[in-house]
Amino acid sequence: MTKFTQYPSTDVLDKSLAQEIIQKLAQSIAKKGKASLVVSAGHSLTGLFSILSKQHLDWDKVTITLVDECWVDVLSSLSNEHQLRQYLLTGLAANSHFISLKNNKATAAQGEKQTENTLKNILRPFDVVLLEMGNDGHTASFFPKSKELHSALDMYSNRTCIAIMSLDAPYSRITMTLPSLLHSKYIYLYLTGEQQHITYQKAQDDADVNEMPVRAILNQILTPVEVVWAPK
Q1: Helices 46-53 & 10-32, crossing angle to 10 degrees?
Q2: What is the value of pTM for the model shown?
Q3: Which one is the CATH code of 2-128+181-194: 1.10.260.40, 1.10.40.50, 3.40.50.1360, 3.30.465.10?
């Protein structure tokens, strides 16, 4: 159920994808009176977020949350929420409802239950999930060889989110689980640059999710996935 779409540039990709996302959200609003958007946060997405923030939509009927979050102060430059507030939750999109994954608990492990309860307030299935991929083959906070990876990918866990550690960061993170992300109508995997294209091709060569966790998204048959890519 994976489709690959190549664009000539990131500018064209961002403009086209913004229109697709807005269309999907508008369709849900027309049908259900509300919509949900779940996004990753990374430098490569800031252009797309800026375009989205300027689009006309009944944003007050849209709930936005993050795929994952670093367990740091939301004012920190390491915070995904901080980036979202700079680039997406502004302009016309400032009228949307945002659900933070971070709370005042000292660690992600201590705060995950509270975050799970908070996430019950968002429409499911999610209308759109927007993911990125690292050059190591991770997506969301599904990090290769992480000791929590098996639990994060467990389709029978009944968990919405889980605390997880990357192998190269001093702080914990919280991430939506695989079953939570797949409880969506459509998933976009956003890639740019030659290295990410090479990584994507490598992910297609094998099924070992422990080596490249993005394979758990690409190889499933529950939810349509569109991989969008452009050279930088």
Answers
A1: 50
A2: 0.97
A3: 3.40.50.1360
